[in-house]
Design a protein that fits this description.
The complex is a heterodimer of chains A (115) and B (111). With 115 residues, chain A is mainly β. Helix content of chain A is 0%, strand content 52%. Chain A contains no helices and 11 strands. Chain B is mainly beta and 111 residues long. Chain B has no helices and 9 strands. In chain B, strand 6 (61-64) and strand 7 (70-75) form a beta hairpin. Chains A and B meet through strand 4, strand 5, strand 9 and strand 10 of A and strand 3 and strand 4 of B.
């Protein structure tokens, strides 16, 4: 199956700093990537849809200026959490869409802790 | 997007067959039914997908009745390692279409 990686797997940062999370499709080109956030004991919540070469589409209630998404190539999308605060601490998961197959492939997730 | 309803939790014992049912009354004609498994602090893992009738792979079976308003994931002879959250999703997951996760079912397998 197709492989999606995320880096870093976990990050701890101080309040007010910015954190960048990378999502890569390793063996296929992903026309669309999705970013999710998951709080403890809760389901995945879609944050935004990222298409290569165009602006991301954010879900209602997600601040686009706080969660910057860049999908510069068909294999890489990045999520930058700007001016992070403790309430941004969460598990961030990306997924990639091959387009030709009716399936999405998920990354292993990134645990963000903001002190 | 079709809304899905699953039991919040289920308990089972090793070696038993587990059936998790998901209802999706407003499924659309071109929607597929996909099940994912998620372990703590990991991304969801694809289990199985179907459109109608029955689909079987090496880890599970998916039963879909003719009206497609529900589906049942069947896990044969579960083990402790099957303890996880299972999500049923309905929609067309390819071509840039977003997935909406419901609450999922927490399956706990005991000895």
């Amino acid at each position: 199956g197709a492989v999606v990686s995320q880096h870093p797997s976990r990050v701890i940062c101080k309040s007010g700093t910015s954190v960048k999370i990378e999502c890569r499709s390793l063996d296929f080109q992903a026309t669309t990537m999705f970013w999710y956030r998951q709080f403890p004991k809760q389901s995945l919540m879609l944050m935004a849809t990222s298409n290569e070469g165009s602006k991301a589409t954010y879900e209602q209630g997600v601040e686009k200026d706080k969660f910057l998404i860049n999908h510069a190539s068909l294999t890489l999308s990045t999520l930058t959490v700007t001016s992070a605060h403790p309430e941004d601490s969460s598990f961030y998961i990306c997924s990639a869409d091959w387009g030709e197959y009716n399936e999405q492939f998920f990354g292993p997730g990134t645990r963000l802790t903001v002190l | 997007l079709a809304k899905t309803t699953q039991p919040i939790s289920m308990d089972s014992y090793e070696g038993q067959e587990v059936n998790i049912t998901c209802s999706h009354n407003n499924i659309a004609t071109n929607d597929y039914i996909t099940w994912y498994q998620q372990f703590p602090s990991q991304g969801p893992r694809f289990i199985i997908q179907g459109y109608k009738t029955k689909v079987t792979n090496e880890v599970a079976s998916l039963f879909i009745p003719a009206d497609r308003k529900s589906s049942t994931l069947s896990l044969p002879r579960v083990s402790l390692s099957d303890t996880a959250v299972y999500y049923c999703l309905v929609g067309f997951t390819g071509g840039g279409n977003k997935l909406t996760f419901g609450t999922g079912t927490q399956l706990k397998v005991e000895l």
